[in-house]
Design goal:
435 residues, mainly beta, five-stranded antiparallel sheet, 52% strand
Amino acid sequence: LELTFNFNGHTESVVIGNSTEIFEDIIGRIFEISGGGPLRIDGSGVGVPQIWSRTYNVSPSGIGTYGQYIPAIRLDTQGNSEVTPTRYYLTGLQQGNGFRTNVGFVNLTSSDLVLNVHAYDEDGRVLGSATITTRPLILLQEGIASTQLIPAADGAGVITLRIDGARTGELLAYGSVVDQVSNDPVYIAGVPEVLMRDAGKAQQIIPGVGHLTNGSWRSDVAIFNPDGDPVTFDLEFFDSAGNKLSEALNYNLEAKHTLHLHDIVKSGVLIPVLESDALGVLRITTRSSITMSHPIVVDRTYSDQGASGTFGQGIFATTAAEANVSVGSPAIIAGARSDAAYRTNVGFVNLGSETSSVRVTLLDKQSGQVSGTWERDFAPGESAIASNLIRALHQTADRGSLRIEVLSGSPIWAYGSVIDQLTSDPEYVPAVPLD
């Protein structure tokens, strides 16, 4: 497979076999230049490679890294599903209380796009608006409180952006929420409003939510109501065995309001408040019958290091209909590692009513051949995180890709958490279904 990398007018081609390639510091090493922007990758050959990126800072101590996962977007499948412009939302952004947010826009069309950006605070008040023009396949990135965007957002706390002017599939919009002390960023993808009108969004789940005293792990959750009417929903927290531990029923959220729950397991919103540590799944179920759009839910699970700041990963809500692994439809987590720099945990959630029999296969980094397999059954509602799974698959393998299959039973959601060995900073990497 021949890949051509295109970055700011520079191109370089590489040929890869049936292997896993990790290009560290790709802009500096492949192009031997510095700069920022979108990297376009064109493939010539059979099949579509599974690609993701980790963009990171070196920690203030000079040891280890803090970074964010950035998914590759397939341009060959970007179609305009609507004739008229849709709305995109970016929620869970923070400006103040120890965080700042950068916002990025990439125009995926061949013509200029004029975007109208509006910012809401937690109580649905409009903080300001801006009009920006985006050129084709050029990154436009600004601080959310810059003079080019919403100056009044400075110090406003949790913020949601509404973006008008692009049809579905024409725009990549994202936020990068950065800890002011550690400089650890978390990537938050923009969500088309039309996606939240789907009936399947009435029940969403977030995996890997919890509170662990050992390591100071916490989960912050932001829930935004994009609709013009109030929305009522239930929150339910389940342990790894699928047992409900606590809940908040009939929670009401006004139009364009955001509910931001710090350390959700201990926040006091879920009843009862758990006395012991817990890790599991948060389920959000829309109850109101008049809503046109279901809530948008994002999570930041992180380790709180006090004066040294926080480091964590962004986890987005998913649904049973969006399961990424099912019988006959395997998925890949590319670029899993177990070496001096990184290790990879793998998470699973059974999204259905039948026991799921799951197989994970490690594909050798050079040959793509099987290096080891791991199998386990998951009961309905059960979730699990397999720590440093590569070591269970092969004693000496340091990197490769993980193929995940459901041999029988219900569909699942599978994801990797690629963790810096020195800082313990994780990146949430969902499995990508194979074509």
